């Protein structure tokens, strides 16, 4: 949550960032500062206000100083579980309003729990500001009387589904549990995972909930931050009114830091049901958050593996060729910290060899010491990350509230910047010797099932509790239940819902355009909030230009083009980019190829010189091609373990056919990856042309500056544009059928339902997006409200429409607990069949209100503004298209919505894809009444 990579002077005043650059990036930086005002209510609640008028939005975050570190063995996962319970009901707010009403006001909301704390946050248009204070304060101080047994049981199912999705049904999902159990003693608060154990969760009682609330949810154990388009003095009065009567609660004694030490190295292995690739982790105990050594450890992580010059990259990836990449990083929490080595190796790789390669890299580091040029590069990159870390109002809010609650200083970001910038080569070597060199650690070998021989020699089998899959859903049926019977807490204020303020309407930013002499069009938005520039070059073609039977060429080409230039080795190019504090990436999508990035405004010209060199002077490095091809095969093998990826791959093949570029993953297949040659990439490269390409740029830069910088690029790049034809759509799926893919012992079933509907150019495209909002547009949609809130079957359920020039699909996606598969399918089937009939005047009003207000916050970031420019260039939209869409939305009548739904969302034409446990679920899904076809994980009929 906290951005710890901060450098250089920044002062934020009413949303404007004033900055001055250090003379030397390696010298001590001047203070970094976010303006704020702090005060404390009589009940002990500490409040931080930050005024920022750059957008008509407000962010509110409440930080509770209670995480899983306050739990006890046998009651694990309770802090996270309570976070879920907090969103259900409160005394003065309608039931379920938190999850439903905030999105309908055009806002976003969520919560998060980690080892040390719990945060609740919202971002809303400014007209809903007081409504958020009403709803947030009621959740904080007035929810405990409303908790019922039914709500408790339903939320247990939701959290269990979250664990199944993120842990049980995910490759390497149990790694955190294994590491914590072996790194921390049984009585240490980090010995268990944040999500906890399902038996502990199942045994939770109403008394447990109330005891936890009364002990930890007092106002004196929290911090509140409000940031955005506010009036400070008026906001103070509103905060006193809405939050001032919340009880302070008992004193919560602070927990002292408890870093650990290991007497000996522990090596453990686990056969992972979902993993297709062996993974090695080595975890060294280090220091807690805010410890001075933490900053040097963070830079150590970058030095060991963060570039092609780094010792571990050289030893593991380049020399031994054991994995596509290697990662090292410091993770600090309130009580202790960890330094982590992580390598997901190539298929069938013996992890003993990975361990030896890591040891070889560390030996090289000990011998050669810190590369001062690398240290300089890292600090240059940190300057850019500094500005990115304060580029949205929510990020500023998080920074202020976390530093206040956990270090009693909302402005600690200044010290963070100073300490990070002051790290020297000697500091880095000191922490390496102090915490890593010759020290004991916990090592895990997670290997595919049946491949124990790949684990590090001498490893012991890890103990992991695994849930039994049950075929009956009836025993776990839950419902909303009756509302609690209670007497409202007395208040001297009227705690009913306040009115909206003045409605802020979205106004399109001013878009400027130009055209270069080579035919490339430029689209720009000038924005001076932070001294950054984001850019993107979109070149038509993408996967559509892949040669026949060789999907993945475009994707592999974009990877290779970032591996050096004709005059720079891969390491030299990476260093050149890093020393500018820039980031440059290339990637391919179905219809376009992109080169995109971020840089400091002052470095736009040298950054674009590198972009030009990358684009026009490729290196065609055979060694790098072989490495990337091997990495591609490793990644494709890894995807075979992911039920979500399996579902998506099969879904698109069924819709488009295996010979259509949309019917094959953009990375290609194992077969195509093997067949691709460097000559294929060179042939594709010869087709890259500026004629129909678009350059998009957003940030602290003017139109003349951009044009001047791109002049040489324009003169040097003059290829003719190729003819691009869409592949014929030859669907393999048939509407009305259900396609089942077996993943043995899956704790959840992944469900993906849909059909091809229309192109993003279609005049009905916007209308269909509007019409979908009530069905599956976020947590207020019917899918989410029914499958999660009412039934507790899933962690989330959504629907949407893909956006391409080609005819694209409407989809419904969710992951439900295995024994709720049939019930979930029946609910979705009925909901879609009746959607048009159930869409009335109330749904029209909700859709219009939600989407109209949502626009006020949807385009705040530079990335979102870049997205506006891409929409304009790709689909030929007017610069004011968002305002035009708002008008189109407001003109739609009930019959217009029904017409669009009936035209495009016929349930009888949809295909159903289910990825789950065949042994328990295949016979169940047959009861839906649709013809069932069994497929393998690639979409081939069995």
TrEMBL record:
- The UniProt record lists the Peptidase M16 N-terminal domain at 47-171, 532-650
Quote the Gene3D superfamilies the UniProt record gives: Metalloenzyme, LuxS/M16 peptidase-like (3.30.830.10)
Mention any Pfam family matching this sequence. Answer: Peptidase_M16_C
Record key words, sorted: Signal
Q: Which residues form the signal peptide?
A: 1-25
Q: Where is this region: Disordered?
A: 475-497
Q: Which spans does this entry mark as compositional bias, Basic and acidic residues?
A: 485-497
Q: Which InterPro entries match?
A: Metalloenz_LuxS/M16, MPP/UQCRC_Complex, Pept_M16_N, Peptidase_M16_C
Per the record's keyword annotation, is ATP-binding included, yes or no?
no
Upper lineage is: Bacteria, Pseudomonadati, Bacteroidota, Flavobacteriia, Flavobacteriales
What is this protein identified as? Putative peptidase
């Amino acid at each position: 949550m906290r951005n710890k990579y901060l450098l250089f002077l920044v002062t934020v005043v009413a949303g404007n960032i004033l900055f001055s650059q250090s003379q030397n990036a390696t010298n001590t930086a001047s203070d970094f500062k976010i303006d704020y005002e702090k005060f404390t209510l009589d009940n002990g609640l500490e409040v931080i206000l930050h005024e920022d008028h750059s957008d008509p939005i407000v962010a509110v975050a409440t930080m509770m100083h209670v995480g899983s570190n306050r739990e006890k063995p046998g009651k694990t996962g309770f802090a996270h579980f309570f976070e879920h319970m907090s969103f259900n009901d409160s005394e003065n707010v309608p039931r379920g309003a938190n999850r439903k009403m905030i999105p309908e006001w055009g806002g976003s909301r969520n919560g998060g729990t980690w080892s040390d704390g719990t945060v609740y946050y919202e971002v809303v248009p400014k007209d809903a500001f007081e409504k958020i204070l009403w709803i947030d304060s009621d959740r904080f101080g007035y929810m405990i009387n409303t908790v019922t047994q039914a709500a408790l049981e339903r939320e247990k199912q939701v959290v269990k589904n979250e664990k199944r999705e993120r842990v049980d049904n995910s490759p390497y999902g149990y790694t955190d549990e294994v590491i914590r159990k072996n790194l921390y003693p049984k009585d240490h608060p980090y010995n268990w995972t944040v999500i906890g154990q399902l038996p502990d969760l199942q045994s939770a009682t109403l008394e447990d909930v109330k005891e936890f609330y009364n002990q930890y949810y007092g106002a004196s154990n929290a911090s509140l931050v409000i940031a955005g388009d506010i009036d400070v003095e008026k906001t103070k009065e509103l905060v006193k009114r809405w939050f001032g009567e919340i009880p302070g609660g008992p004193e919560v004694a602070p927990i002292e830091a408890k870093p650990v030490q290991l007497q000996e190295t522990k090596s453990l292995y686990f056969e992972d049901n979902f993993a297709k690739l062996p993974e090695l982790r080595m975890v060294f105990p280090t220091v807690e958050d805010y410890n001075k050594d933490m900053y040097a450890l963070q830079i150590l992580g970058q030095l060991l593996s963060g570039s092609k010059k780094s010792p571990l990259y050289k030893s593991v990836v380049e020399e031994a060729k054991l994995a596509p990449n290697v990662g090292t990083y410091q993770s600090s929490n309130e009580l202790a910290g960890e330094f982590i080595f992580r390598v997901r190796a190539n298929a069938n790789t013996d992890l003993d060899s990975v361990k030896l390669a890591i040891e070889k890299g560390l030996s090289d580091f000990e011998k050669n010491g810190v590369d001062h040029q690398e240290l300089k590069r890292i600090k240059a990159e940190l300057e850019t990350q500094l500005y990115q870390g304060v580029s949205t109002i929510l990020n500023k809010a998080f920074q202020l509230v976390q530093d206040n609650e956990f270090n009693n200083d909302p402005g600690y970001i200044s010290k963070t910047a100073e300490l990070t910038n002051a790290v020297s080569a000697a500091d880095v070597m000191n922490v390496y010797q102090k915490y890593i060199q010759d020290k004991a650690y916990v090592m895990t070998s997670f290997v595919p099932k049946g491949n124990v021989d790949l684990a590090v020699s001498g490893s012991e089998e890890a103990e992991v509790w695994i849930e039994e899959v049950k075929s009956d859903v009836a025993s776990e049926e839950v419902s909303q239940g009756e509302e609690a019977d209670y007497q409202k807490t007395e208040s001297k204020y009227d705690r009913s819902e306040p009115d909206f303020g003045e409605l802020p309407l979205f106004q399109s930013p001013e878009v400027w355009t130009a055209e270069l002499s080579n035919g490339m069009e430029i689209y720009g938005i000038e924005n001076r909030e932070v001294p950054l520039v984001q850019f993107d070059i979109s070149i038509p073609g993408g996967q559509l230009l892949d040669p026949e039977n060789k999907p993945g060429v475009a994707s592999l080409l974009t990877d290779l083009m970032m591996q050096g230039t004709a005059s720079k080795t891969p390491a030299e190019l990476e260093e050149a980019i890093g020393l500018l504090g820039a980031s440059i990436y290339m990637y391919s999508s179905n219809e376009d190829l992109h080169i995109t990035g971020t840089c400091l405004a002052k470095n736009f010209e040298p950054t674009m010189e590198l972009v030009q060199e990358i684009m026009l002077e490729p290196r065609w490095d055979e060694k790098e091609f072989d490495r990337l091809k091997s990495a591609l095969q490793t990644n494709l093998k890894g995807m075979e373990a992911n039920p979500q990826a399996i579902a998506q791959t099969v879904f698109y093949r069924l819709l488009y056919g295996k010979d259509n570029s949309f019917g094959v993953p953009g990375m290609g297949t194992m077969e195509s990856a093997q067949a691709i040659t460097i000559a294929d990439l060179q042939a594709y490269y010869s087709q890259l042309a500026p004629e129909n390409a678009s350059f998009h740029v957003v940030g602290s830069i003017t139109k003349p500056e951009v044009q001047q910088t791109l002049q040489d690029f324009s003169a040097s790049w003059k290829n003719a544009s190729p003819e691009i034809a869409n592949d014929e759509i030859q669907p393999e799926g048939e509407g009305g059928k259900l396609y089942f893919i077996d993943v043995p012992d899956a704790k959840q079933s992944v469900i993906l339902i849909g059909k091809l509907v229309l192109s993003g150019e279609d005049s009905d495209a916007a209308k269909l997006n509007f019409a979908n909002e009530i069905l599956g547009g976020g947590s207020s949609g019917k899918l989410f409200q029914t499958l999660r809130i009412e039934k507790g079957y899933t962690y989330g359920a959504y629907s949407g429409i893909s956006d391409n020039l080609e005819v694209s699909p409407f989809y419904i996606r969710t992951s439900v607990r295995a024994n709720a598969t049939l019930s979930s399918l029946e609910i979705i089937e009925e909901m879609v069949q009746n959607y048009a009939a159930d869409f009335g005047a109330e749904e029209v009003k909700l859709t219009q209100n939600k989407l109209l207000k949502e626009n006020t916050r949807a385009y705040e970031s530079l990335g979102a503004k870049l997205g506006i420019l891409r929409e304009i260039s790709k689909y030929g939209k007017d610069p004011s298209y968002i305002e035009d869409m708002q008008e189109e939305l407001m003109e739609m009548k009930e019959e217009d919505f029904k017409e669009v739904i009936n035209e495009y969302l016929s349930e009888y034409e949809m295909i159903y894809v289910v990825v789950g446990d065949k042994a328990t679920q295949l016979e169940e899904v047959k009861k839906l009444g649709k013809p069932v076809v069994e497929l393998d994980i690639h979409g081939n009929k069995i």
